[in-house]
Amino acid sequence: MSQVFHRHCHTPLRTAVRGEGVYLFDQHNNAYLDACGGAAVSCLGHNHPGVRQAINTQVEQLAYAHSGFFTSEACEQLAEQLAAKAPGDLNHVYLVSGGSEAVESALKLARQYFVEIDQPQRVHFISRRQSYHGNTLGALGVGGNLWRRAPFDPILTSAEHIAACYAYRDKHAGETDYQYGQRVANELEQKLLELGPENVAAFIAEPVVGATAGAVPAVEGYFTRIREICDQYGLLLILDEVMCGIGRTGTLFAQEQEQIQADIVTVAKGLGAGYQPIGAMIASSRLYNAVANGSGFFQHGHTYMGHATASAAALAVLQAFEQDQLLAQVRRQGQGLAERLNQRFASHPRIGDIRGRGLFMGLELVQDRDSKLPFAPHTALAARIKQTAMDNGLMCYPMGGTIDGVQGHHVLLAPPYIISDNQLDELVDKLSLSLNQVFHSMAKEAA
Ligand code: PMP
Questions:
Q1: Can you give the pTM of this predicted structure?
Q2: How much is the average pLDDT of 19-31?
Q3: Ligand 1 atom nearest 101 alpha carbon
């Protein structure tokens, strides 16, 4: 028996022994096409020579120096590059070890900002149903996934939830996408009026929803209206780009495609591309200045923040983006993936929706396309697809269960940005084979 406390206590895992490009290999040398990067992490694929080299060089010089005593060149350069590339005045980069830490930092900065500017009554956070912002208590507290929250609910910091922007499920008949987006965005205003707008610190949302809904972008106009409401009532807008940021949707920051700027953005996953654990909270000058000119101290911190080796790895990731023009590649291959998925699955009886942006795509699985009836949680559909796909040499990210009573199951795809046309063919072939095997075996069991 393994002494590792695996999160699925009873599901045996294969041992990954090496990675090369878009493939991972297990202890028997079986290859797996990595179509999800775990959870949208491995954007450069595996065994990238530039990142490997950058890590080695950094470790040989300086692996780590505590951020309370020193900064490092790698950390300074990374912050400079992220600030230069981030929209507008998102200029102040707080480097941490991952997504949840970045979100915790964002929530705490939002709160401290209002303490600094003498609005201490702003204590509420608003977020959306069907959202995920991390598993630490604060991040889970703002998350809208009831299943993930359930055991911990009594000990979570409270947050108020409004509707997700999820047109496939929630748009009314006769409503245009735009009208739908305005209606659900206006729920933020209604919630503010309920709570007293002067009592709300921030609204947090994922520009493209990842883990709890399967690559769902908002409809046009939604985020413009959200930004307008935040400005009107003086609360902060936190955009969580931990999964959809760092090029995944075809622009370095997903919010660029919404033509808005957050007050705080969080990134992680693709930033270290799996080579090092790293995340960042990037704050606007207004927020930074309030702290710098106020108490002068952001009352937060983690032992591994501003980590030199992790920063060197992330710098090499950003360098690879430039050198190999990977953002353009994401847009090109993203289109190729969307076309292949549509060709293969647009009339599939069990696939209700194909959506996403760039190399961040989701398929929603339904029992019936007309009624959009989801599969029941007891079918364990996600686990079966994951297992079958692995048996077929494909790593994809199926998720599911009933969330908020409606959502059902989906498969998330987030392959490395370096994926070739042939590998996209292989991905869709293996996915199609795996899905059909699972649906056939379920039909047989039901017969
Ligand atoms: N926010 C979002 C949008 C995420 O998708 C995730 C991870 N799936 C997190 C936060 C938490 O990141 P981490 O697992 O690195 O703590």
A1: 0.97
A2: 98
A3: 16
